[in-house]
Amino acid sequence: MLENQMREIGESAKKASYILAGVSTEVKNQALQAMARALEERVEMIIDANRQDMDAGRAKGLSDALLDRLLLTPERIKGMAEGLRELIGLPDPVGEVTNMRTRPNGLRVGKMRVPLGVIGIIYEARPNVTVDAAGLCLKAGNAVVMRGGSEAFHSNKALANVISAAATSSGIPEGAIQLVPTTDREAANMMMTMNEYIDVLIPRGGTGLIKAVITNATVPVLQTGIGNCHTYIEEDADLDAALKIVVNAKMQRPGVCNAMETLLVNHRVAQEFLPQMAAVFIEKGVELRGCNKTQEIIHCLPASEDDWGTEYLGLILAVKVVEDLEEAITHINSYGTKHSEAIITNSYQKASLFVQRVDAAAVFVNASTRFTDGHQFGFGAEIGISTQKLHARGPMGIEELTSSKFIILGDGHVRS
Amino acid sequence: MLENQMREIGESAKKASYILAGVSTEVKNQALQAMARALEERVEMIIDANRQDMDAGRAKGLSDALLDRLLLTPERIKGMAEGLRELIGLPDPVGEVTNMRTRPNGLRVGKMRVPLGVIGIIYEARPNVTVDAAGLCLKAGNAVVMRGGSEAFHSNKALANVISAAATSSGIPEGAIQLVPTTDREAANMMMTMNEYIDVLIPRGGTGLIKAVITNATVPVLQTGIGNCHTYIEEDADLDAALKIVVNAKMQRPGVCNAMETLLVNHRVAQEFLPQMAAVFIEKGVELRGCNKTQEIIHCLPASEDDWGTEYLGLILAVKVVEDLEEAITHINSYGTKHSEAIITNSYQKASLFVQRVDAAAVFVNASTRFTDGHQFGFGAEIGISTQKLHARGPMGIEELTSSKFIILGDGHVRS
């Protein structure tokens, strides 16, 4: 039953994707405009649906933080519509042909940018993902099959209905934007092995969700989001600047993936820097967990081995005193999640070494890791921050939602 | 026991990869030269080892074709050495920084090309993969962990020993080139889930191997090689050219992934083209399996549903008469493996539609699918032909064995 339903979803998405690959930028942009307008026109209906989720969430005892992520307001819906309109202005990568060259035998070989096909999104709580993901996938010429969390089911359904109807009425093929219409967990599992219909899966959510998808999926996965990020203070750092940067990296928004989780300090400046750092963080309510050497300098809880590998996403900071740059790099490459890593230094050589040898999507010199973000990098909207090395690394925008194919133009050419 | 052994291999490969990422092009090229020289100097030892595999293969009753793939001769070893030397001349992509831009706040953001890290190769019969893969991975700055087939175990071991010793003596870190020193199947399974140590897996072999890796691996996989390739003859095709192209696509080397497996013919030219085609192929010993309409025109076996989805890799050709371009494209997108697909036509519009709508790594107009190959495309050596859409599509060379990272240079920047 569910299997048939999922197969139908997959088949119609695949079919839509083949048509969508040939739809012009103009039609796609008109659809984005229509989707934005439809959201604004249907605010009340969407908020009614959201109220069902909010009531159920309260009854279920969801935390205030989760309830806030779930909540839709007229302003938030307006924000989603603005997000769609922003996509209209971005360039359409599909169809671009690069490196067309003529081989010695006269054969012309070039590379054409094409959509990925069908993208599967498995996500949690936040209903805005429904609109953001659908818009990005559409602009890149992809069909999308979305499976949201059960807490946001009614909100997601309302949003998906509004935008897919608007897209279809603007000339986008039916099936191009689909939400899996069930909260059955089995539906998500099926998506992970629908290789025949889904070209790429993008999980968006916590560590548990992402690990489950990586472990169970046979469909290729774009891994996003987990960030155990470090900042390393070198002995020659400007300590005033360093303090501002680490406070920003930890505090500007502690619950997100590019926030700092572990601070590494060169032992030559630890005596001077750690007390200043501790004074600020303790005043801001941050719990410090230090290595043995840190504990000799400031008053804090002991850090366990587990602390080095934890993404707290909250007001806890692990602190470690290291011998030198070498130890800092080794620590980061051992415990980091390859997201965002920073060094604070005035040494050209040390900055270069850090940039070269730290294995992460974004490596910073003298700046806060909080800048890892599509908008901050100047690329516009993003569908997530890739922490894997294949295909895309760092913030993924429209271009990262495309693939390429070789086109080979001959004149009766045969291989000898 | 095996688990410890595999963990040690993984750990030392990872460690080597971090050093290798900073090794200069010059040192890598010297190592490639030393590896080539060492192969030439140790020909006798390598052939002795190969003899063990050949004897065991004969005793096991391996087919002549498999024995031929297994066989090493002085010429073949010389060929491997030449392959390594060819890599010296190719550009080193590592370290290139592109799109370095200054953001309005003064932050500089750019993209640096970096190695993938540790690449796992799981492969079958042909021992030359040991040398080719190690050379390509090294040039791109990656450590490699290889697990070859049991039939070629002694040959692979001899080759790996020779080249890894030569590499180490030229300044490449120990652990950069490793062959799993056991024929235990469990070793391959372990590689598939060694996410901590292996960044990317590339299976090279038949459908069974590739499916097993895709199903079981949690490490990201680059899918290669399976090719159920089609050639479609449009009604306006030059039929003489078409015949030469399909004969080339089927016969020039029938056992490889870019050879044609199914011929699609527009019904308006079927009456004229099929008898000419059949005469040539039957004379060459090719078994034809046709759809109902084909059987009305030429004498051949009936094609079953299974035939449309089969990669024969031999002297069998499936033949189908289609109504029009639309049916041809739908058939290819339904049954193809997204490898190489060709149309023979003189129509600009039909060629454009085919190129745009066929979903494959390489789409040909008026040329044989046999051209899908790194050398034929002008890119030099390849590690395989990707048939997936993430990361790389089509022939994968040195650049496809790299990733990128963002580098962000600030001056005390914090996010507001």
Q: Can you put this structure into words, describing what you see?
A:
The structure is a homodimer of 416-residue chains. Chain A is an alpha/beta fold and 416 residues long. The first copy, chain A, folds into 2 domains: 241 residues, Aldehyde Dehydrogenase, Chain A, domain 1, CATH 3.40.605; 148 residues, Aldehyde Dehydrogenase, Chain A, domain 2 (3-Layer(aba) Sandwich). Chain A is built from 16 helices and 16 strands. Chain A has a 7-stranded parallel β-sheet. Chain A has a 4-stranded parallel β-sheet with strand order 5-4-3-6, sandwiched between helices. A 3-stranded antiparallel β-sheet of chain A has the order 1-2-16, with no helix packed on it. In chain A, a hairpin with a 7-residue loop joins strand 14 and strand 15. The N and C termini of chain A lie far apart (53 Å). At the A-B interface, strand 2, helix 10, helix 15, strand 13 and strand 16 of A face strand 2, helix 10, helix 15, strand 13 and strand 16 of B. Strand 16 of chain A pairs parallel with strand 13 of chain B.
Which secondary structure elements does this structure contain, and how are they paired or packed?
The structure is a homodimer.
Chain A lengths: L1 H19 L4 H17 L1 H18 L3 H7 L3 H16 L7 E6 L5 E8 L2 E6 L4 H12 L3 E5 L5 H17 L7 E3 L5 H7 L8 E5 L2 H10 L12 E5 L5 H13 L8 E7 H17 L3 E4 L1 H6 L3 E2 L2 H4 L7 E7 L2 H11 L4 E5 L3 H10 L4 E6 L6 H4 L6 E3 L7 E3 L5 E12 L3
Parallel strand pairs in A: 3-4, 3-6, 4-5, 7-8, 7-12, 8-11, 9-10, 9-11, 12-13
Antiparallel strand pairs in A: 1-2, 2-16, 14-15
